[in-house]
Amino acid sequence: MRGETVTNTLEPTRATSFTEQQGLDTDPIPISGYIDPDYYEQEIGRIWKRVWLMVGWAHEIPNPGDYFVKPLPFANTSLIIVRGRDGQIRAFHNVCAHRCAEVVWDEKGSARRLQCGYHGWTYGLDGALVAVPDEENFFDLDRSKYGLTPVALETWEGFIFINLAPEPPQTLREYLGDYYDGYHGYPFDEMTTVYRYRGVVNANWKVVRDGFLETYHFPVLHRYSFADAFSNKAENPHCHNIHYGTNGMHTIASAYLNPEYTPTPMELLTFSLSQGVDSIMVKSEQQDLPPGINPSRHPLWSADNDTIFPAANINLFANFYLWHTYWPLGPDKCLLETQQLMRPPANATERWMHEVSNSVFQFGLLEDFTAQERSQRVLASGAKTHMVLQDHEYPVRHAHHWGQQLAGPYPEVSAR
Fold it and tell me: Which letter does DSSP use for residue 74 in this model?
């Protein structure tokens, strides 16, 4: 299904609908899924605690003993992600077996052992309990029974994924499907310069996610930032994507590149000076990309916006990529973590170019958050009970479909 595409997505009179091709209904979607507190708890238990979630990069902990702590508020826990002496990366609940205190209090670091900051119980990098102060006064203490609680962890292309289920229903390869091999060859390992954006958005995690899954809003919401790079008033005024594909619970959307777009003087300067590095606004040269990226090999391709269900998506450009995750904090609040990853700058000019790209991207994020928080404020008003989606919002509909397959249908709502 991944290779299918809408018949000429830029043709307004096309005879096929990708939504219907994929067997999805075209009915309005209840907004109760965004606001119902009981349904939110169902999502946490039936989705978030059972699927694979990306929590970091292997290059963040390159040496034995390197670790970082990943808070997961929706699960009332935090995880220790640590590289062992054998080079293997493991994950453990950050909970001491003694009095259930948090073992590691720093966000990241490097250590030969992991020692609880409360009473000093000490664990090896493999999670085994190796030292207990005043051990002789415990009652028949068997250290082998009191190690750190492990969490399923697998890596893919340098990304670290965890699964909170005691026995994950799928391997990471099975979960990622076509992505697993389709991205092989993309230079993820070269893009180790990370620019991070993190903040709480006063909106349900799906409101934020949905805003990143479609480009229908670009010509209006992003008209002052980057809309002109991805839409054309004559050929593609509504910023239609040029390709859609399905990969199990995940979707791919290839974004259009406006062939008539004229970069600003600042963008032209950065592009001319920075070989091999792109601004988000500057046209990328077509490269020999892996088959999973720009799968239709469309000549007017700018980037892929691939979803990784439930709430992550990766924007793959020729020379850099973005990773977004929307962590649930409650029915009307989520934590956004966005990373922009590039090759390390070779000189001061390329470092300056990174800042130009970052400034454009940050401005676009602020535009998105403004709209999303304003939406959340009125969702519970009762003025509307459903939302209406068009064919080019297919990834949004697909995500809602799979969410309800796992967590159950959205509650019924009554008209005001």
Answer: G
The pair of three-digit structure tokens given for residue 292, joined into one six-digit string:
């999973």
Residues 6+ apart with CB under 8 A from 359: none
In 3D, which of 75, 372, 384 has the Cα closest to residue 205? 372
| Cβ–Cβ < 8 Å for 310, 47 | yes
**Does the pLDDT value for residue 42 go beyond 90?**
yes
Question: Which stretches of 110-160 are DSSP H helices?
Answer: none
Please, are residues 17 and 7 in contact by the beta-carbon 8 Å criterion?
A: no
**Residue 414 within a domain:** no
Q: Which of 24, 79, 35 is nearest to 249 (CA)?
A: 24
Share of the chain above pLDDT 90, in %: 72
Same domain, 136 and 216: no
313: in domain: yes
Q: Which domain holds residue 127?
A: 53-167
From 113, 137, 167, the end of a domain falls on: 167
Helices marked H in 95-195: 172-176, 179-182
Cα 259–265–269 angle (5° rounding)? Answer: 95
Q: Can you give the CATH number for the domain in which 78 is found?
A: 2.102.10.10
Which of helix, strand or coil describes residue 306?
strand
Q: What is the pLDDT of residues 200-233, one digit of tens each?
A: 999 999 999 999 999 999 999 998 888 888 888 8
Q: Summarize pLDDT for 128-156 with one digit per residue, the tens.
A: 999 999 999 999 999 999 999 999 999 99
> Which CATH number characterizes residue 214's domain?
3.90.380.10
Q: Contact 384/31 with Cβ under 8 angstroms?
A: yes
Our count of domains for the chain comes to 2
